[in-house]
Cytokinin riboside 5'-monophosphate phosphoribohydrolase (Anisodus tanguticus), 303 residues
Amino acid sequence: MGYTAVNPTSMGHVFPRNSHQKDLILGSSMRKETWRFNLYLPKLKYQSRKSFCCKNELIDFEERTSSNEVKKEIEQCYELIHRLGRGVVYLGSSRIGPGHPHYEKTFELGSKIADLLDCTTWSGAGPGLMDAAMQGALQAGKPVGGFKIGKEAGEWTATNFHAYLPSESYLTCRFFSARKHGLVDAVVRCRSSDRTAVVVLPGGIGTLDEVFEIMALIQLERIGSLLPVPLLLMNYDSFYSNLLEFLNDCEKWGTVSKGEVASLWKVCNNNSEALDYLAEFYGLSPIETKRRDSESSECRSLS
């Protein structure tokens, strides 16, 4: 490959010609000065990762080199949602187990919201508060679905199978991006009759990652641009109070507009506030709400 270069010390007025011309006309003397050199690039060979990683790492790396693998998993998420129906997505800690007050509150909330909105309950299909919401919905006799991940916080799962959910009601995702697509699409309202919501329970890094991503999507009108989707922050025992103070400070610093955060979600201190808000949001009359609670109580007593 041939290139023509100009000696920088002799640069005067430059009158460029076409790229195939070998010489440049320099200065008023019209003196020709030409440098030529050849640039040869060596052929780079792709080094297989086999030479520096173990077999399991190689399999994971090869899967990630193809966008088709992620695309297939996202399509599977959409198929599962289409089959089970959109509904309420619960985001929360996988570490808080039975016996904890927040677990008991989440169990009750999952049961009552499933009754109130008569919809599918979605979660990450993991342990902890995700499990509490699903158990509550199952007790209410409502469908549940989930997007499971191979690893939950603090523990490696022995298998990719859920402990009690039938295989047709959840998907084990290899990619977090596909899982997030599923959790978001499960709450997108396509019709005014769709009753969906995002319920944020106490949680850690994973929960905060998910809730702020959804907040950003709502803020940018990627979710709820036509039909709004309620986002509820369950501030059990003031769990999120310090976070709310920090966001108030963000307003003082000017990184968010005044009242912007409050417009994106509803902060609820207990289950009653959450149920009242959802009933009002979807225009459910107090009579209908009480009827659903009554029917749910009868079903549980018969079972």
